[in-house]
Amino acid sequence: TSLLESSKENKCVFFLFCIRDNEIQRSPNSPVFNWYQSTLKMPLKHITLANLNEEGVNSLVSDTLCLFPRLTRHLSQVLHHRALGNPFFVWQLLDTLQKE
């Protein structure tokens, strides 16, 4: 929180924090939960990103791989199941697959 508080002076800080809602609710005594709760008091813009359905994940995957959606459907189903539709986690899984 001190970084956030000190950034009030220069107003040039971009911070992205991504977590699933159920992870916050599941661990109310964790340091991440306490930190997240403290950010709610700061003048920040909170953006909620909804999970993608299978079709949305398939669009993301087919666009990323420059392939027709019919060719990426099976991979997209697996990624959707693993990432629960969270676009950030879909990107992370795609990145991991690409590196392997």
Structural class: mainly alpha
Number of helices: 6
The rough form would be described as: elongated
Span between termini:
36 Å
- State the major sheet: none
- Proportion in helices: 55-70%
Low-confidence stretches: none
Radius of gyration: 17 Å
The ordered string of helix (H) and strand (E) elements is HHHHHH
Strand percentage lies at under 5%
User: Mean of residue pLDDT?
Assistant: 82
List keywords for this structure.
mainly alpha; single chain; 100 residues; elongated
Walk me through the structure.
- The protein has 6 helices and no strands.
- With 100 residues, the protein is mainly alpha-helical.
- The longest helix is centred in the last third of the chain and has 15 residues, at 69-83.
Describe the structure concisely:
By secondary structure, the chain is mainly alpha-helical. It has 6 helices and no strands.
Task: Summarize the topology.
Elements: H1 2-6, H2 21-26, H3 31-39, H4 54-65, H5 69-83, H6 87-99
